[in-house]
Amino acid sequence: MNSTVADPDSDYDEVLGGVLVANSRVVAEINDVATPVLIGRDPVCHVVLDDRRVSGVHLELTPTGRGVRVRDRSRNGVAYNGTDISEFRGEKYLRGRCTIRCGAAKVEFYAAETTTRVIRESSEPTYPLVGEAKGMRDVFARIRKIAPLELTTLITGETGTGKELAARAIHLASPRAKRTFYALNCGAIPEALAESILFGHKRGAFTGAVDNTISPFLVADGGTLLLDEIGELPRPVQVKLLRVLEERVVQAVGSNEARPFDVRVLAATRRDLDLRVGFDGDDDDREQILRSDLFFRIAQVRLEMPPLRHRTSDIRILVDHFATELGRNVRITEDGLQLLERYDWPGNIRELKNVVTVAIAFTTDGDVVDFTPHIREMPGKPRRAMKTFVEMERQYLEDLERNCAGNQSEMSRISALARGTLRDRLRKYGLAE
Ligand SMILES: Nc1ncnc2c1ncn2[C@@H]1O[C@H](COP(=O)(O)OP(=O)(O)OP(=O)(O)O)[C@@H](O)[C@H]1O
């Protein structure tokens, strides 16, 4: 499953983990930036302490470049080598060996001897999206507007247009920026496990459930949860998800305790959900991807990511950005850039990033990068001078909107399109709400 965490504190190539030991036994390993280890009284925690003075989730441990970060989420406090952790503003980075006390229980921490490499992608800089084209400036303006609001946001766009990065950008520009950002790829969840992965499960809830699993709603508590490829969730799970979003409590499979959470929910999809949502309340239609009630719950605000072929002027900046990230001393020529600008990029920025990475890998330091062989092998075709129908329609609607200063009755009269149809087409191209 592709789950990633962005945290302003974890902007490192390498992280330091460790193990927790209780009663001379290793009770948890802290080595995954995406899954903080939780200690508490609640059975969903990795280390469960049966002590009334211990809170449901008492503390959270995450590997970072500065050591293992302890976050106090308790009512009664956590002691680090005998000192209350609140003296360190509720946060402390563990290295070496130390003792942590929660209620009456004592847990030993031992730092790992070696660091663990994490992919830099899971630690993007504060503003991860690159772009200067009009389409991207609109996206930035919208992110700035959306970020402080607590509304659910549906991010749409073709594959590789940066939907997950946009979600991180919303999180980082929001008041929740210091807390966890968790991305759950709903498209990668096997149908049979969807409920237990989304809501968590209690040990023994079903055959094979040997461990407790914590719901991403609780892992991201206080922060932001991205439900990526939400259209892929099985319909029975959609009904339950809707209830969880409305009641803001989550109940693990096999548990009878409902746990409240405080999470901002973002969703992303590359499918055209608008066309496949049941607007008539006919929610039994198998053809629909998403129930209409869930669609409206998760799409209080919309953000559309433009395809790269609509912002080819950004190709230069992006190539520069990816080349700088690779830190290699190679030369990129005007011809090379023009070749990239003529291509139609069906895989969008992900594809561009791959082409740049591979082409640079094949170039010796000081030499000119030759993109030609890598472009030719791509599934997309070089852009033809002739426009596709979709491009012409988009251009027509943009001109129409400009000429009529956005007045939709006027636009409907000139184009001879019914108001409803016109609105649908404008929405399709992100030209209207
Ligand atoms: N504006 C951008 N600036 C820099 N890098 C970008 C930008 N947009 C996308 N990328 C990079 O392109 C790749 C794909 O981005 P991302 O995963 O956010 O796309 P996506 O729309 O969520 O894709 P999918 O629909 O296939 O899941 C990532 O490596 C990301 O870092």
Structural description of this entry:
This protein is of the alpha/beta class and 433 residues long. The protein contains 13 helices and 19 strands. It has a six-stranded mixed beta sheet with strand order 1-14-15-18-13-19. It has a six-stranded antiparallel beta sheet with strand order 3-2-12-11-8-9, with no helix packed on it. Helix 7 packs across helix 9. The longest helix has 15 residues. The two termini are 33 Å apart. Bound molecules: adenosine-5'-triphosphate. Adenosine-5'-triphosphate binds next to helix 2 and helix 9.
Summarize the structure.
The protein is an alpha/beta fold and 433 residues long. The chain has 13 helices and 19 strands. The two termini are 33 Å apart.
How many separate helices?
Answer: 13
Query: In order across it, which strands form the biggest sheet?
Result: 1-14-15-18-13-19
Number of strands: 19
What is the beta-strand fraction? 15-25%
Main sheet record: 6 strands, mixed
Tag the structure with descriptive keywords:
13 helices, 29% helix, 19 strands, six-stranded antiparallel β-sheet, binds adenosine-5'-triphosphate, alpha/beta, globular, 433 residues, six-stranded mixed β-sheet
Break the fold down into its secondary structure elements and pairings.
Elements: E1 4-6, E2 14-22, E3 25-30, E4 37-40, E5 47-48, E6 59-64, E7 67-72, E8 78-80, E9 83-84, E10 91-94, E11 97-102, E12 105-117, H1 134-146, E13 153-156, H2 163-172, E14 181-185, H3 194-199, H4 216-219, E15 224-228, H5 235-247, E16 249-251, E17 258-260, E18 264-269, H6 292-298, E19 301-304, H7 315-326, H8 334-342, H9 348-361, H10 372-376, H11 389-403, H12 408-415, H13 419-428
Bound molecules: adenosine-5'-triphosphate (ATP).
Residues 121, 129-131, 157, 159-165, 268, 270, 321, 349-350, 353 line the site of adenosine-5'-triphosphate.
